[in-house]
Write a structure and sequence with these properties.
By secondary structure, this protein is α+β, with helices and mostly antiparallel strands. The protein has 2 domains: 1-41 and 92-240 and 254-414, no CATH class; 479-601, Sandwich (Jelly Rolls), CATH 2.60.120. Helices cover 51% and strands 17% of the residues. The strands form 4 sheets. Strands 7, 8, 9, 10, 11, 12, 13 and 14 form an 8-stranded antiparallel sheet that branches. It has a two-stranded antiparallel ribbon with strand order 1-2. Strands 3-4 form a two-stranded antiparallel ribbon. α1 packs parallel to α6 (126-134). The N and C termini lie far apart (77 Å). Keywords: Membrane, Transmembrane, Transmembrane helix. The chain crosses the membrane at residues 20-37, 97-119, 126-146, 181-207, 219-238, 297-315, 322-343, 355-374, 394-413. This is Glycosyltransferase RgtA/B/C/D-like domain-containing protein.
């Protein structure tokens, strides 16, 4: 009877302790949502986001659209979200923020479930949970919508799948292994690293759940998931046409570049951010930044990490396997994809300090911290040595890491984030809404702060970025041609203004006269020679009847249609020289002022809207 009372008392005590741990964990998850929302609400769409939304609007929800691999990323789930986003307000940042915070909440709760199932309701699980909630490793990815819809579903799927797998290993119930496979498939729908979830399940079983031999049914089911995925992935990988109009060709960098990139990603990104870094950031425009870990702090972080690994291996059985698992995941899931092409484009430094390549690894780091320091529920003889008086040394370290994380995140948020891009896009969309339907707008590239033409090509054009939000038809044109009436062009703030040709001007003859031009060539001397390049030619004319002009600059020749009466016509020439030669192909005309150069927004003319949005 005494033993039964003792057991009952222990159960009640554990129940009360579990309730406390659960309450604290839920408060931690809620607190990080409030904290991160202050960052997320200031973000906006950037770079690839505009391309993905535009592609969604251009395509139906077809197999080819969903299963296209974008530079190594198979993400039909993310493409489906982009497709829906384009139809729910195009650039609906409020919806994006709501989805981001919802996914972030689900990721926190999913990790809590895994830690609870794996280690039990003990206070120690609050440490890896707290790490995942505050680490700056995830912050740049959280500020980029395209990264959010890839990585956050993965951060939900991984712990949910592993928790179900643990339950299956303990109970043998079929519903748990089906749930594990289902969550893995959910992750694969969004993120190319998701197949490693099942690899982690294998390692977890081999090291902590009693061995792999008794779970043959699970491995067969998991293979049934992985094999079709691999077939589809590799078939689409080598057939999907990229923005470069080429299919994927794997290219490995030189050993020196590969080693430098791997070391930079490990020492400058993964390890420092796991310990509260990077403490300093390198801005990429106003709305993004790379890690810029100072060298002394980088070496200090590596030293602290080495000590933590050594201590865990000396005291905790199989801690070595936990750290080896993290290293293997880092090499296979984080490094290898970069090696297959991106490092050649970005270089080892840019790719090595890019935290979005390791943002999804935060949940794996949290799991490994738990496995390296906390006994798994039901684990026999977890320790190599008895508890030491130094067992609480992690408390000041956790406090320092938390303080560093808060500092790093605050430093990242100390920039405009999406404010300037949002102002430009919203201003441009409002301008298109206010000009008359059918207005001719020169389709130029948006500023680099919105989308880099170097990487996004035609998806960086205004017609692709802001054109879908126009409430009525707009006459987009890449080059001014013929008698265009009142062409418009976007200025630096996103407003529409009348276009003017910035370059050289051949004035009309004195006294308001014009120069007759017929079938014979008439030469107009330029005030200064122009270099060999693409030039827009604007010709003012007075016609009794419509005619066609031939314009020649050096060896380049083009035609321009001129209408009846007084007007202006345009053409484009790619050449250079010191004179422009005109003649008519039919009839005669009288030419006034001629301009040759580049179309730009005329800052002296009224803008639509009068002021940029957000000012």
């Amino acid at each position: 009877m005494t033993a039964a009372v003792a057991v009952a008392e222990r159960v009640r005590r554990n129940s009360r302790s579990g309730d406390t741990v659960l309450a604290v964990a839920l408060v931690m998850v809620a607190a990080q949502l409030v904290w991160k929302f202050e960052l997320v609400r200031r973000t906006y769409f950037r770079q690839d986001d505009f391309m993905f939304i535009a592609r969604g609007l251009e395509n139906g929800l077809t197999w080819d659209y969903l299963m296209r691999i974008d530079f190594g990323h198979l993400m039909p789930g993310a493409f489906a979200i982009h497709w829906a986003m384009g139809r729910l307000g195009v650039h609906n940042d409020l919806l994006a923020h709501a989805l981001t915070m919802g996914l972030q909440a689900a990721a926190g709760l999913a990790l809590l479930r895994l830690l609870w199932v794996l280690f039990g309701p003990r206070p120690a699980i609050l440490v890896p949970l707290g790490f995942a909630l505050v680490t700056p490793m995830t912050i740049p990815g959280l500020s980029w919508w395209a990264v959010v819809v890839e990585t956050l579903p993965f951060q939900i799927a991984l712990p949910m799948a592993l928790a179900s797998h643990v339950l299956y290993a303990r109970t043998g119930r079929l519903r748990h292994v089906l749930a594990a496979a289902g969550w893995a498939v959910f992750g694969m729908v969004f993120f190319v690293k998701a197949p490693f979830i099942l690899v982690l399940a294998f390692v977890l079983t081999a090291g902590w759940l009693g061995g792999v031999a008794r779970l043959r049914r699970a491995w067969l089911l998991y293979l049934g998931v992985l094999v079709p995925y691999a077939i589809v992935f590799f078939q689409r990988l080598f057939t999907s046409v990229q923005l470069t109009n080429e299919t994927f060709e794997p290219r490995l960098p030189s050993p020196e570049v590969a080693a430098q990139s791997m070391w930079t990603l490990l020492s400058g990104s993964l390890v420092p951010t796991a310990l509260g870094g990077p403490w300093r950031w390198q801005p990429i425009g106003d709305d993004y930044a790379l890690a810029a870990t100072p060298a002394p702090l980088m070496w200090a972080a590596l030293a602290v990490a080495a000590v933590a690994v050594t201590v865990s291996v000396l005291w905790r059985r199989r801690a070595w396997l936990a750290w080896l698992t993290l290293l293997g995941y880092f090499l296979l899931a984080d490094v290898v994809p970069i090696m297959l092409g991106r490092v050649e484009v970005l270089g080892p430094d840019l790719s090595g300090f890019e935290l979005r390549y390791v943002s999804s690894t935060a949940v794996v780091v949290a799991l490994v911290i738990g496995l390296a320091f906390i006994p798994v529920r039901g684990e026999g003889r977890p320790w190599r040595r008895p508890p030491s008086r130094w067992r609480w040394a992690w408390v000041p370290l956790a406090a320092v890491v938390t303080a560093g994380s808060l500092w790093s995140v605050a430093a990242y948020a100390d920039r405009p984030l999406g404010r300037n891009v949002k102002s430009y896009v919203r201003t441009a969309e409002q301008a298109l809404a206010q000009v008359p339907a059918g207005s001719t707008v020169l389709d130029t590239y948006v500023p680099d702060k919105v989308a880099f033409p170097l990487f996004l090509y035609d998806y960086a054009l205004h017609s692709r970025v802001v054109g879908p939000a126009a409430p009525h038809p707009i006459a987009w044109t890449r080059r001014l041609s013929g008698p265009v009436t009142d062409p418009l062009v976007f200025d630096a703030s996103g407003r529409l203004r009348p276009a003017r040709i910035d370059g050289v001007t051949i004035p009309a003859p004195a006294g308001g006269d014009c120069t007759p031009v017929g079938p014979d060539e008439v030469r107009f001397r330029l005030p200064a020679p122009v270099r060999d390049a693409e030039h827009t030619v604007q010709i003012s004319y007075l016609n009794g009847a419509p005619t066609t002009l031939s314009a020649r600059l050096g060896a380049a020749e083009a035609r321009a249609v001129a209408g009846r009466n007084l007007g202006v016509t345009f053409t484009t020439l790619t050449g250079g020289g010191d004179e422009l030669v005109l003649r008519t192909l039919d009839g005669t005309t009288c030419v006034g002022e001629i301009r040759l150069g580049v179309p730009v927004a005329d800052d002296e003319k009224p803008a639509v809207p009068p002021r940029p949005v957000g000012e």
